[in-house]
């Protein structure tokens, strides 16, 4: 096991299998040194984590859902790098979408679940630019969806 997966294990976490696309797209595209990973919805061992932040889910539960998105993003990065974590140079940007009830404004707190996991898993190269956007609904009723851009060697 390498450093990233050891750090995750130390947090009581592990990478899921890289998910197959749900529609007419690919899980990731490499363009030069940049890897663009398609949006990963919140899911755990029981399936999609559904909910609406500010409705039936609070920001703390949303942050845990966002953490699962970050794990799924890292699983896609591992697949793109054919298991060679040494090819990952930087987490460039995360864009987080949060299913939000009217009047819910804590999207940044929700997406912090993913941002903090990236830093904990990959260290300083995990610090990234970010957007956190509230939306009315997400695919499969997911609470959170996050896409990412990564710099590879």
TrEMBL record:
What are the leading ranks of the lineage?
Bacteria, Pseudomonadati, Pseudomonadota, Alphaproteobacteria, Rhodobacterales
User: What name does UniProt use for this protein?
Assistant: Endoribonuclease L-PSP
Pfam families found in the cross-reference section:
YjgF_endoribonc (PF14588)
User: What CDD domains is this protein classified in?
Assistant: YjgF_YER057c_UK114_like_1
| InterPro entries noted in UniProt | Endoribo_LPSP/chorism_mut-like, RutC-like_sf
Q: Enumerate the spans annotated as Endoribonuclease L-PSP/chorismate mutase-like domain.
A: 5-141
């Amino acid at each position: 096991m390498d450093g990233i997966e050891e750090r995750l294990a130390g947090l009581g976490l592990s990478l899921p299998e890289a998910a197959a696309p749900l529609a007419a797209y690919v899980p990731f595209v490499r363009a030069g040194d940049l890897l663009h990973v398609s949006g990963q919805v919140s899911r755990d061992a029981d399936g999609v984590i559904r909910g609406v932040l500010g409705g039936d889910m609070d920001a703390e539960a949303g942050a845990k859902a966002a953490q699962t998105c970050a794990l799924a993003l890292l699983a896609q990065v591992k697949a793109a790098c054919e298991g060679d974590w040494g090819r990952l140079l930087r987490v460039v940007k995360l864009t987080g979408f949060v299913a939000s009830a009217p009047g819910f404004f804590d999207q940044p707190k929700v997406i912090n679940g993913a941002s903090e996991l990236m830093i904990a898993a990959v260290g300083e190269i995990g610090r990234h630019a970010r957007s956190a956007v509230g939306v009315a609904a997400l695919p499969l009723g997911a609470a959170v969806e996050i896409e990412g851009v990564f710099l590879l060697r």
